[in-house]
Amino acid sequence: MKNKNQSYIYIQNTNYMKTTLYLLVFISCINLFSQQTPAPKQTEAVTILGATAHIGNGKVIKNSFIQFENGKLTVVANATLTKKPIKGKVIQAQGKHIYPGFITLNSTLGLVEIDAVKASNDVSEIGTFNPNIRSIVAYNPESRVTESVRANGVLIGQITPRGGRISGSSSVVQFDAWNYEDALLKADEGIHLNWPATFYTSGWWANGTSIKKNKNYTKQVQQINDFFDQTKLPDAEAINLKQKAMQGLYNGTKTLYVHANNETELIDAISFKNKHKIKKMVIIGGYEAYKITGLLKKNNIAVVLKRIHSLPNTDDEDIKLPFKLAKKLDDAGILVALDTAGDMERMNTRNLPFNAGTAVAYGLAHIIHNH
Q1: Which of 5, 17, 278, 280 has minimal CB crowding within 10 Å?
Q2: Could you tell me which of 107, 100, 157, 111 has the C-alpha nearest to residue 138?
Q3: What is the mean pLDDT of residues 216-228?
Q4: How many Cα atoms occupy the beta-carbon half-sphere of 23 within 13 Å?
Q5: How far apart are CA 125 and CA 259, in angstroms?
Q6: pLDDT digits 0-9 by tens, 280-290
Q7: Three-class DSSP category at 161
Q8: Where does 7-100 sit in CATH, by number?
Q9: In this model, does residue 30 exceed pLDDT 80?
Q10: In whole angstroms, what is the distance from residue 164 CA to residue 129 CA?
């Protein structure tokens, strides 16, 4: 089993993949394998010379000196200034670029292999409130889809269940592993709550034009409140798995991920957070989050935007609004990230870098801000 504290470097046409930074090296040749094979334990030092290194905080080193040993990055420096000695295998990477690897959030990678084959679909569980459902035990690290996303620099994922009002818990994995224990970076780090929608369309046949108010919205929100109240009560008779899974939300060891888009839904979700004294909350979706940036910043809530390669939700909105949302939130001091959830989401995970590129093209800074 590999050291869970190690990280990964993707260098096409070589077997060395382990470092403490998640890096991606673009090299023109790609070896094709019938099945991905996790990299072996590093046996000698590796030194990469001459690449343009993009550190991830806005800093760029045009002539870099990068070195790693025993699966850990030891040196990232300017090759013309460093006095560090060259060790082990040397990779001449002049004209190449090294980037931080991408992390896909709110992903079902490894939970479904073929949508039409029921036996390969383990993305959801029966029931409405399932905080005790753990996505990690269903995760398949040998998924053929994962191979395609690694080739485009997506190296880590937050594996998230679907369905119900509370889907279950997500875990963070790396995509170069033999089994789920080997892949695991952080287990059960958050609970996913699907907030009720205030409005809905009557179906695909309505072409999105028949929008109706959800008459059960207040009742559905009250059901969530009741469930959270129940999980705070001591259970003296037996172990309650659902109650046990929820405790991390109250002591700050887990994050509550609220899937919501409408402005009213977002405001109600923030009020819910404060009412139940939830320590950490992140919005997933957040289509109208740009309308309440002050409230989000005041409550220190980050937003993971829905796939931005999409059309606006309504006909009267700017056609380019989805492309501009990341900049709007970033300008307001909100920590923002992107996901690729939606139609064919597992296959579309490989397009995460292109979503990020679109956000930058429409104003998002290259520099990662620490809001």
Answers
A1: 5
A2: 111
A3: 96
A4: 29
A5: 17
A6: 999 999 999 99
A7: coil
A8: 2.30.40
A9: no
A10: 6
Q: Is 349 helix (H, G, I), strand (E, B) or coil?
A: helix
CATH number given to 103-361? 3.20.20.140
What does pLDDT average to over the chain? 87
Q: How far is residue 80 from each of residues 63, 68, 84, measured CA to CA in Å?
A: 7, 18, 11
Residues in the chain: 371
> What's the average model confidence in pLDDT over 355-365?
93
Question: Cα 271 to the chain's mean position, in Å?
Answer: 25
Enter the tokens of residue 87.
């060790």
Residue that the structure tokens 């929008």 belong to:
211
Q: Across the strands, what pairs with 48?
A: 66, 91
Kindly state the tokens that stand for 338: 């992107």
Q: Is 68 exposed, middle or buried (0-12, 13-18, 19+ CB in 10 A)?
A: buried
**Which stretch of 64-68, 69-73, 215-219, 257-261 has the lowest confidence by average pLDDT?**
69-73
Looking at residue 23, its amino acid is L
Domain ranges of the chain: 7-100, 103-361
Question: In 250-345, at which residue ranges do the beta strands (DSSP E only) sit?
Answer: 255-260, 281-285, 302-305, 336-338
Is it the case that residue 35 has pLDDT exceeding 70? no
Whole-model pTM: value is 0.85
CA-nearest of 63, 109, 310 to 208 is 310
More confident residue, 236 or 65: 65
Name every residue whose Cβ is closer than 8 Å to that of residue 203 and which is 6 or more positions away in sequence.
210
What single DSSP character describes residue 20?
A: S
